Fold each of these.
Amino acid sequence: MSNPPGKLIIISGPSGAGKSTVVNRLLAECTLPLTLSVSATTRHPRPGETHGKEYWFLSPEDFAARKARGDFLEAKEVFGRGYWYGTLAETVSSGLKSGKWVILEIDVHGAATVLEVHPDAITIFIHPGSLAELERRLRNRGTESEANISRRLEVASEELAMMHRYTHEVINREVDQAVAELCTLLQKYDLG
């Protein structure tokens, strides 16, 4: 007997909203058959990152060749730094075929592109409640230059304006609450 097909879950939100923290906890704590689609990128690994775990680290040439072949559901250069990020279609389709609930943690533009192919995806927008809170979080990270913070806030403002395109909104004021809310929300889609 084959597995019932999985579900596609798109999670977006501004940089600094805590998406990765919430998604990682969701994967660990929610009993649904969740899996995170590993994105591809042309940026170099940061200390502690592993090829195939956090990202598929591809050379710019390999990424461009795959993009030209149509291997990506969506791909975009992010923050004007010359680094590309993308979702490999095969990663998503193999996960769905095996009955997994595949999570894409992607930006609003990537989400719009994926929804053209997967209009039935479950869409969730995570944010910290306000642009001021987002700015506080970005500054507290201590990893960004003033120019990067300004650029991220500009992009965040544009992303927040597109929140209405998502079926669900989760305000990440506190990680435990956001994870519990997300898991409860997703369990409502588990009709089997």
Amino acid sequence: MTRASLLLLAACSGSKPGDTAETDLPPWPDAPTACEDAIRVPVDGGPTVGDGGEADPSEAVLGASPEPTQVWLGFPHDPATTAGFTWQTDADTLASEVELSDGVHAPVRLSGASFELPADLDPDDGVTVRLHEVHLCGLSPDTAYSARVGGEGAWSEPHAFRTAPDEGPVRIAISGDNNLGYAEWAVIAEGMLAWEPDLFVHTGDVLHDGHSSAEWAAWFEAAEGLAGSVPTVVAQGNHEERAALYFGHILQPDNETWFGFDWGPAHFAVLDSEQEDAVRAGEEAAFLADDLAGTAAPWAFATWHRPPWASGDEDGGNTAIRGEWGPVLDEHAASAVFNGHWHYYERTVPIVGESEAPSTAEGVTYVITGGGGALPTACGEDAWFSAVCEVAYHFVILDVDDAGATLTAVGDDGEILDSLELEPRAR
């Protein structure tokens, strides 16, 4: 189903409860339900250092500004069968519901929870916002849905989305490093939407300061049409600063910082490069090995923020991460890794160990896609590992099916900067 068809479903599912067109629909047998997850209040430092307790359950209470804003679409578990929404309101609004429709059956309403967080850097200034979160379970793979978030008397516009398929082809948009460049980020987001991606993978540095609600508002305004309708995952960057607001807005599996998932024929391992060295070398490296060994998907990819190979870095990239995760990627035959941090586009030759591999079937291709709006940084010169380096605002499109995968780097003006067909690796 194309994005135009999804938007039509959303429009047709946007009537208010009680409208004739909606009440004439038959009941929804085996309808999706709210997941049984306990929604937690995030704290600065993130889920790896604790949380602020269970969130407030949904109640039919509306405050002065109950209209949902800053809607994020993610997934708490398998993206083929689950989805989840977060959004923001004034601090007094407790209504935390999703009205879900498949366009065939009468919609169902599912409840979640909410929590207050400081609205800016100073938690003592008394200004708070409320983040709402609802997890949806029992969805069907490769199925179009439409959802409104909020509650009776304060519903959002409908958001159309589609769950992950069991097989390909799939199209994945990848970009990172918006970091105050929100006007340019709006151009990038619109450009990605034109390619009708099934999934958006962000390589980190969504903001300049993860504690700033004003920056979150600017980011979401620029990403209108993308964040609430294209399932999104993000690798934590250094500018997120493990802020409670960051963990309040995003919705991801497991500890929300490192996890794996399948999207059709593509498996992604998402890692957290901002952890201390001992964690990266221990817990995360062990997770990565188990995750890549455990997937049956024909293609394995990984993403995190700081690149192990970067010509603009005087060290040629983050050598510690290269030593911690590079051997695991080699052992389990990952095809490509997507990073940010450097504000340009760069693709390496296929690499195995510390050397160039004969082909993409025998090594890992590393891609930096950090041109999402932040001020550009310069490419290096004469790096043996660099196949292409372009200082340009851009995004990457990854097309994957069982037999092949193609990555295409697209400039903010629509110009194709680079394209590469990846060969399957023996896994």
